[in-house]
Amino acid sequence: MTTPLVSSRLSLQSLGTTIQLNAHLAALRYANRAAIVRYASGKSKGDSRLRDQPKKKKKQRIEFKQYNLRDAEQYSLCDAIRYIKAFEAGRAPTSPKYDLAVKLRTIKNGPTVRNQLRLPHAVVTSVRICVICPPDSKHAEAATKAGASVVGEDTVFDAVKEGRIEFDRCICHQDSVAKMNKAGLGRILGPRGLMPSAKFGTIVKDVGSSVKRLVGGSEYRERNGVLRMAIGQLGFTPEQLQANIKTLMSEIKKDVALLSDRVQKDIHEVVLSSTNAPGFSLNGDFRSPESPPTRDLSVM
User: Fold this and answer.
1) Which of 5, 26, 133, 164 is deepest in the core (most CB within 10 A)?
2) Whole-prediction pTM value?
3) How far apart (Å, rounded) are the C-alpha atoms in residues 182 and 15?
């Protein structure tokens, strides 16, 4: 006859055996499942190729990403001006500026577009121009008469090295190129886009005419597939803004054509914005049937 104490001990032993058996069966089921997955993928248990296999690299884009304009909302020039003026209400007509962004379909790390031009209606009239040439020469006299604010050689070199860059454009007479290169200004002026270069037409023979061309002129440069430039003051009429945009677009098309033998570039989108307003994608039309009369857009 089994006593109650012995009976309880036997029950506990059988319960422990059952728990151990269930745990063993669960471990076997997990191992079998893992083996099926390994064999189905062609990898054996001891195969280290799973660990050693390199991660798949993401394919890098070689061109700048551009969005499809079919679903984009685009505006005529007069409509864009109307909305921009609403954002700029209450501000002085000469304080905010219209900005034009021209987005290009182009590859990354390729040759870029950079140039300068004189718009029919000048946007910036206070450009400070530096001319590197012998200070007592006829070239210095011509540059000063044309409107250059800084003229000279050694004085300009010393000021730049001391960090006093008091000009917005810099051109160099061809006779002063060797002296300029010897002064080592490239590491200072180069990153600022101010270093004179024959490639960009800032090493010249006639400094007088070059300064006259730069006074009231504007410069544009491609960065990350986009060309940006101030295209007008807020007080400009739609006709004045249209003339400036046409001039800029014509010059950009010429610059793109000059690079066609080295890289393919196309104009993808043109966006008009201002100092305090968002950008409005232009559709190429001057006005739409819903546009207000241009005389109403000429008054702030």
Assistant:
1) 133
2) 0.61
3) 94
